[in-house]
Amino acid sequence: MILKDYNIFFIFLLGAILSKSLIFPGIALGDLLLLIGVLILITFYSNKLKIGLYEISVSILILLTSIIFIFSETGSYFSINEFMKSYVKLIFYLICFILFSSFLKIIETKKIITIIFYTSLINAILALLIYAMQNINLDINFYHFLWFGLEEPGKIATDVNHWQMSNSTLIRLRGIFAEPSLYGIYQTISIALIFLNYSRILINNKIAFSLILISIIFTFSISTYAIMTFLFFVLLIKKNTRNSLKDLIVFNAFAIVIGIIIFFVFVSSFTFIDVFYERVMQRIFDFFDGFERSGVQRINQSYVTAIVGLENSILFGSGLGNIAQLFEATEYKTMYITGIDEIQYYSARSHVVPYAILGELGILGIVLFSLLLFQYMKYDNIYIYSFYIIYLFSTGTYLDSSFWIFFSMIRFADRLGNIKNREINSNEKKY
Questions:
Q1: To the nearest whole number, what is the mean pLDDT of the chain?
Q2: What is the pLDDT of residues 25-46, one digit of tens each?
């Protein structure tokens, strides 16, 4: 066979990365890559995959509970067209999930983690290159194509100026992702998978790992910083990652400081301390005071959206794909009060995956998704799942390729592939 197992894994991983970029009318390139991956697995690996009966059973229950709602009293707001579009997507992603989860059981762990690491490194180098060009106003537009479809499906996006500081503009690093937080969250979940399964590759490639960390810092994303902080304590608590973490801290801290100094001396007109205080620390303070816009939108409004769905039906929510229709029919609005007592109104907003599931699929939906996620949870790995739950509070939808690929991998984070492959020999040769 021409395609090796690691090539197939890369196809699925790239599908997750491109879930919100390179978007054509009606479909994202990420979904096309998942479809290619599924067809390859069915064609060449059908006799090797160990399909889990548990995964199939729970997936069928999710589909059944979604469609049962149609036969209840759905209300005049309910759109069968929106339901069917989302239902077809859900079927597709569940098939991908079942096959990809089965594939993870037979592929060597070291191969998986190596691919994740070098993919993260390439993403970081590309993101830093784009970021440098944006900051020095180098008019080379090659990277605009990488944002194809971000503003409007089928069209090349333009540069996004994020924040004004005095008379200048501060640009946040986002690489090929739709926004900085999505880039940062992707890199963070990748680091988690690497550390939990094959941390030796980070120790053997400290400079490369420093570049990944520097790129994360330049996102100036509070949600990313929060998840990274939580991950740090998870790795510190976990016995078999603690030593690797200590080994990396001193070198990476020094490299990160040097990298930041070089960037702000030769590229940016801002001092890092000013930027960090005004755009990170001040926003954290505002968030806890209830004034920070994006944080309030992402959490509070997603919560309100979920509650509205549950009020419609505590068991089934608004119905798959119909939370926006429910809001429109009821003329319900989400709102929050800004730091200057300004009231802002919005329709349904689902920036948090657990709330999105609750709002559209109700209690039954969240219970079934939890049964899938926590299938392998034990007392000694509960902190890994705690990290992933926090990660889910920083992403927006369960109907895209990124959610399902990382959802599949995190379930195996403490038992990915052949467990023996995770045992790291301190005298192991450099990979």
A1: 79
A2: 667 788 999 999 999 999 998 8
* Residues 303/356, Cβ–Cβ less than 8 Å: no
Torsion of CA 225, 227, 233, 238, to 10 degrees: -140
Q: At which of 266, 283, 300 does a domain end? A: 283
Co-location of 216 and 69 in the same domain: no
Q: What is the DSSP string of 135-149?
A: HTT---GGGGGGGTT
Residue 73 lies in a domain: yes
* 345/179 Cα distance (integer angstroms): 23
User: Could you tell me the residue range of the domain that residue 95 belongs to?
Assistant: 55-106+289-423
77 and 188, same structural domain? no
**Rounded-to-integer distance, Cα 14 and Cα 42, Å:** 19
Give me the pLDDT at residue 254, please: 74
Beta strands in 221-355 (DSSP E): 334-337, 343-346
Domain end call among 253, 283, 313: 283
Is residue 100 within 8 A of residue 163, CB to CB? The reply is: no
